[in-house]
């Protein structure tokens, strides 16, 4: 008796090679992520080695930035980065959370999609266009109207004293706020949508008004996640470069007034990198980049951990 | 008769209702304030950009400093070139990485990789410019289109990886099982069945990433550098729309400001076109399933 031959040739046993090659190719691509993180950290460290050995830790709290005298300190830039980002958070987080609340709890269904689309489009506007708009539209308006008004009514605070140039820490804070609003809003919205409806129904059943439902059942439940959304916004704000460079005034000084120009880590790198004439100058700029990288990675890790515990990770579309 | 101390006064209930209505008003105002900047920016782009947009903008090179006229033809082509190079680097790594995360690997290790990709997404784009400067500009002693393309491509990798993975896990498990049961090799199953099914979703992710990097300026400042002439050799500096907009808007010349607005309008139109493509693609996907 003969064995009937199969209609199709069976794959030869042991032809696992293509499978293995494919799997390893995919694994290689996935591992690139880790390689990239190491590469970024290592290259910035390598670039800043000269400055690290020359200035040591004093680099971080020296406020002198004088390329002619070869004296470099990071403090004015760290100050500028923190102040402009915190200003942006103060403006963007309440607005973003309020908009997310409006979108998930109040807005008529027909309105939600168009508003979400508008916010997504705002996220798509490039940084350099915000900067252009900042220079030619926002700053003249702030200089001639808003800042004058603030100085008149709140001038007793040191924050709103001193000469008004237009380009300023406050202008940078406002532009960054507009730029991080989309991400703060969309992450907050995801967090609020993950609040179980049972929470809201229970509060309504107890006779709560709409605001009381939001406050007691929704906001307090989502507090942790909303905090994560704010931190993620902070991560974005710290690294904003082009728009900030165009409106902050680029002067390495530490001033109490929000009307005064400032400088940030990212914008000094953008402005002075190609003009750095000496190795030490370039190396100091690399160290500023290293500081920026370290801070943003810390902030992003914190945000991801906070959000993970809330929603099981944020979809990359929103991030 | 004694009033129970536990019952609130009628005035209090009124106050609570009033407060709730006030908060509703505040929320509506906030939502309006959030979308207002978009319309203000688009308004100014249209008003100032459209009036300075003419045929020579698309066909001519920038004029030397001080001379009026000229265009950004080289920057438009430059942006397209950079996007193509970035895609050539970012798409294969991103898609294959996404395949690994969705189809292979242990849950634990993949969680770490996802976490790493999300953290990498948060790295400021200017940092990528500095890194690529060290690995591609310093050794070859020249700013180049390659360096710009690589900087943008590296930004794309984690973006594409995460979106690819997200659409691949949506492909029903039964497709894979059915194909494997027919004796098809695993890699063929993944490429021909799983990736094929999710192709539109993957394309959507790629286009979203392209739209995101098309407007990036910071990573190009010290890689592609910019160029006022045509780029004939990718080993030499190349111009890009965002770079040109930046250079013109911080210049002291009115005519350059005018052109910066025109450039911004063209760049925004390009990015919107990419986003609209995404909407069309994802609508088809929804109606097909």
Quick recap:
The complex is a heterodimer of chains A (319) and B (289). By secondary structure, chain A is mainly α.
Please give a structural write-up:
The complex is a heterodimer of chains A (319) and B (289). Chain A is mainly alpha-helical. Chain A has a domain at 75-263 and 299-311: MetI-like (MetI-like fold, Orthogonal Bundle). Chain A contains 12 helices and 2 strands, in the order αααββααααααααα. Chain A has helices at residues 17-47, 49-55, 58-61, 75-106, 109-124, 127-154, 169-193, 197-205, 210-239, 242-247, 265-272, 279-311, and strands at 65-66, 71-72. In chain A, strands 1-2 form a two-stranded antiparallel sheet. In chain A, α7 (169-193) packs across α9. The longest helix of chain A is centred in the last third of the chain and has 33 residues, at 279-311. Chain A starts with 16 loop residues before the first helix and ends in an 8-residue tail after the last helix. The relative contact order of chain A is 0.15. The model of chain A is unreliable at 313-319 (pLDDT under 50). Chain B is mainly alpha-helical and 289 residues long. The model of chain B has no long low-confidence stretch (mean pLDDT 91). Chain B is flat. Chain B contains 11 helices and no strands. Chain B is 74% helix and 0% strand. In chain B, α3 packs across α9 (199-214) and α5 (125-140) packs across α6 (145-168). Chain B has helices at 10-52, 55-59, 73-103, 107-121, 125-140, 145-168, 173-181, 186-197, 199-214, 241-249, 254-288. Chain B has 2 domains: 13-52; 57-288, MetI-like fold, CATH 1.10.3720.10. Chains A and B meet through α1, α4, α5, α6 and α7 of A and α1, α3, α4, α5 and α6 of B.
What is the helical fraction of chain A, as a range of percent?
Answer: over 70%
Oligomer description: heterodimer
CATH architecture term of the largest domain in chain B? Orthogonal Bundle
Specify the structural class of chain A.
mainly alpha
The name of the CATH topology of the domain at 75-263 and 299-311 in chain A is: MetI-like fold
CATH first level of the domain at 75-263 and 299-311 in chain A: which class?
Answer: Mainly Alpha
| Overall pLDDT confidence of chain B | 91
Share of residues in strands of chain B:
under 5%
Overall body shape of chain A: globular
Specify which chain pair forms the largest interface: A-B, 95 and 94 residues
């Amino acid at each position: 008796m003969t064995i009937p031959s199969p209609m199709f040739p069976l794959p030869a046993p042991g032809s696992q090679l293509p499978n293995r090659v494919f799997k390893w190719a995919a694994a290689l691509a996935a591992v690139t992520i880790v390689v990239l993180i190491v590469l970024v950290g290592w290259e910035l460290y390598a670039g800043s080695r000269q400055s690290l050995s020359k200035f040591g830790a004093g680099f971080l709290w020296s406020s002198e930035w004088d390329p002619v005298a070869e004296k470099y300190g990071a403090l004015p830039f760290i100050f500028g980065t923190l102040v402009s980002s915190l200003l942006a958070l103060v403006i963007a987080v309440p607005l973003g959370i309020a908009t997310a609340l409006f979108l998930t709890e109040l807005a008529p269904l027909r309105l939600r999609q168009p508003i979400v689309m508008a916010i997504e489009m705002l996220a798509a506007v490039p940084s350099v266009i915000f900067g252009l708009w900042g220079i030619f539209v926002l700053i003249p308006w702030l200089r001639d109207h808003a800042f004058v008004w603030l100085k008149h009514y709140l001038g007793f605070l040191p924050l709103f004293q001193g000469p008004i140039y237009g380009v300023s820490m406050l202008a940078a804070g406002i532009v960054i706020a507009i730029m991080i609003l989309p991400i703060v809003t969309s992450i907050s919205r995801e967090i609020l949508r993950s609040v179980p409806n049972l929470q809201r129904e229970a509060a309504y059943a107890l006779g709560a008004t709409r605001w009381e439902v939001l406050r007691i059942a929704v906001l307090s439940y989502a507090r942790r996640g909303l905090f994560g959304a704010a931190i993620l916004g902070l991560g974005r704000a710290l690294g904003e470069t082009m728009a900030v460079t165009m409106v902050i005034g680029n002067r390495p000084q530490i001033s109490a007034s929000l009307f005064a120009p400032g400088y940030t880590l990212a914008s000094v790198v953008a402005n002075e990198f190609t003009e750095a004439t000496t190795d030490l100058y370039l190396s100091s700029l690399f160290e500023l980049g290293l500081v920026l990288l370290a801070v943003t990675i810390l902030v992003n890790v914190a945000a991801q951990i906070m959000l993970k515990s809330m929603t099981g990770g944020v979809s990359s579309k929103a991030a | 008769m004694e009033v129970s101390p536990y019952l609130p006064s009628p005035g209090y209930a009124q106050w609570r209702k009033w407060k709730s209505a006030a908060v509703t008003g505040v929320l509506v105002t906030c939502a309006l304030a959030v979308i207002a900047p978009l319309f203000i920016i688009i308004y100014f782009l249209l008003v100032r950009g459209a009036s300075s947009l003419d045929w020579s903008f698309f066909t001519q090179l920038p004029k030397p400093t001080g001379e009026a006229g000229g265009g950004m033809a080289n920057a438009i082509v430059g942006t397209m070139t950079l996007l193509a190079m970035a895609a050539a680097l970012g798409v294969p790594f991103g898609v294959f990485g996404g395949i690994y995360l969705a189809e292979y690997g242990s849950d634990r290790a993949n969680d770490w990789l996802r976490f790493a990709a999300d953290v990498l997404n948060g790295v400021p784009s200017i940092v990528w410019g500095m890194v690529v400067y060290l690995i591609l500009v310093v050794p070859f002693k020249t700013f180049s289109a390659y360096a710009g393309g690589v900087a943008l491509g590296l930004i794309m990798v984690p973006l594409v990886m995460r979106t690819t993975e997200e659409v691949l896990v949506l492909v029903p498990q039964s497709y894979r099982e059915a194909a494997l049961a027919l004796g098809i090799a695993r890699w063929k199953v993944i490429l021909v069945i799983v990736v094929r099914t999710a192709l539109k979703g993957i394309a959507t992710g790629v286009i979203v990433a392209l739209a995101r990097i098309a407007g990036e300026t910071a990573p190009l400042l010290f890689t592609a550098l910019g160029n006022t002439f045509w780029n004939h050799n990718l080993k030499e500096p190349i111009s890009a729309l965002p770079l040109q907009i930046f250079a013109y808007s911080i210049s002291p010349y009115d005519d350059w400001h005018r052109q910066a607005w025109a450039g911004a309008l063209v760049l925004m139109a390009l990015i919107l076109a990419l986003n609209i493509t995404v909407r069309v693609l994802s609508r088809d996907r929804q109606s097909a399933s």
